[in-house]
């Protein structure tokens, strides 16, 4: 939910492409979570590194990371409910994928922007002369890549706020909730904690689960069979996420070269408020894909510059994770539906049977 100072970084060429707390939290308060809550093997050494980075941050930090092929995890305050800012748009995206999967929605559904729909903050749709008709895929692309707030509200109107929250419950996520449209007042009775969280709430662990499902292309419930078209749906959304425009957080120290032509090895969704900087990403390491989910909040640094402390802290923590788990670097070819994990599992099974 970036402010216009960030949206102002968009160039005319980019637009044409689219349309052709206030104290240092002590280390003891940001200690690693115990054993990763049973969802993998805790990496104690890395957790201590991340805890030190969190303690140095002038604010609070919640973080969770998992290497998907090994099950290694690190977790710091990973179950603390936090403000999502625009990271909640991942939940909207996931529900849209599910609706496309069952034919309730289609990528080429037409959505019309009319006068009065535009809201402030990040994005470009609010600056267009209405009415403008776009496809659902166009709207979701802008919601993800430039975090367009007006596009997000159009997506919520089409997909349904209640449907998004029902999907999060279907996934077993107890602390992830979309309260309302962006920069619009709440509609109807709201949970008592809505004023605290604003647009949405989540935890570092729960939003990592959403991103992992997108990467693994798990659009089905336990016991269900995948659909033949699942990979195509996931490819559409991974393309959106790997073309994220805001790259000053998790990708900050990881991408050494311009990935706009060759394809990034990082698929991410950011979220920012004055005292909040968040990023959740799939990082395609040569040693195996990782999900990294980092939320900084109650930040002393409320500036909107490239060197905002929250963004620097996220970048340092992401670099520490990749240095520990994939020291040989990244490989964008892995960033495809399934993340190569089924083939790797099949290879291990075949070797074990010999």
Termini separation comes to: 53 Å
CA-atom Rg in angstroms: 19 Å
If strands are numbered along the chain, what order do they take across the biggest sheet? 1-3-2-11-10-9
CATH level-four homologous superfamily name: DD-peptidase/beta-lactamase superfamily
Tally the beta strands. 11
Total of domains: 1
Count the DSSP helices.
12
- CATH structural architecture: 3-Layer(aba) Sandwich
Helix share bin: 25-40%
- Calculate the mean pLDDT score and round it: 88
How would you describe this protein?
With 354 residues, the chain is an alpha+beta fold. It has a single domain, classed as DD-peptidase/beta-lactamase superfamily (Beta-lactamase, 3-Layer(aba) Sandwich), CATH 3.40.710.10. Helix content is 36%, strand content 16%. It has helices spanning 4-7, 12-19, 44-56, 89-101, 136-145, 149-159, 161-170, 194-197, 204-216, 230-242, 309-325, 341-353; strands at residues 41-42, 60-67, 72-76, 82-83, 110-113, 132-135, 177-178, 200-202, 266-273, 276-285, 288-297. It has a six-stranded mixed β-sheet, with helices on both faces. Helix 4 (89-101) packs across helix 7 (161-170). The termini are far apart.
What is the structure about, briefly put?
The chain is an alpha+beta fold and 354 residues long.
């Amino acid at each position: 939910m970036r402010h216009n100072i960030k949206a102002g970084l968009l160039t005319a060429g980019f637009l044409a492409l689219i349309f052709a707390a206030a104290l240092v939290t002590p280390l003891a308060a940001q200690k690693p979570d115990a054993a990763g809550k049973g969802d993998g093997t805790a990496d104690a050494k890395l957790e201590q590194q991340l805890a030190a980075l969190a303690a140095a941050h002038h604010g609070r930090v919640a973080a969770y990371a998992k290497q998907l092929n090994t099950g290694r995890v690190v977790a710091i305050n990973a179950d603390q409910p936090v403000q999502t800012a625009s990271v909640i748009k991942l939940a909207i995206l996931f529900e849209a994928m599910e609706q496309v999967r069952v034919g309730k929605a289609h990528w080429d559904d037409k959505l019309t922007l009319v006068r009065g729909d535009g809201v402030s903050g990040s994005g470009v749709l609010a600056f267009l002369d209405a009415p403008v008709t776009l496809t659902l895929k166009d709207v979701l692309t802008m919601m993800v890549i430039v975090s367009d707030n007006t596009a997000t509200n159009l997506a919520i109107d089409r997909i349904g706020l209640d449907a998004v929250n029902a999907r999060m419950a279907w996934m077993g996520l107890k602390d992830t909730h979309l309260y309302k449209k962006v920069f619009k007042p709440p509609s109807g009775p709201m949970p008592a904690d809505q004023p605290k969280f604003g647009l949405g709430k989540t935890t570092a662990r729960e939003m990592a689960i959403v991103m992992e499902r997108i990467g693994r292309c798990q659009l089905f419930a336990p016991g269900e069979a995948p659909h033949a078209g699942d990979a195509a749906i996931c490819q559409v959304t991974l393309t959106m996420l790997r073309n994220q425009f805001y790259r000053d957080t998790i990708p900050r120290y990881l991408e050494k070269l311009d990935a706009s032509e060759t394809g990034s090895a990082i698929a991410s969704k950011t979220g920012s408020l004055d005292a909040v900087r968040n990023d959740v990403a799939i990082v395609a390491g040569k040693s195996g894909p990782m999900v990294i989910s980092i939320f900084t909040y109650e930040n002393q640094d409320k500036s909107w510059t490239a060197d905002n402390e929250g963004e620097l802290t996220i970048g340092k923590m992401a670099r520490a994770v990749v240095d520990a788990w994939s020291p040989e670097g990244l490989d964008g070819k892995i960033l495809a539906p399934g993340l190569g994990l089924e083939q790797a599992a099949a290879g291990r099974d075949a070797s074990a049977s010999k």
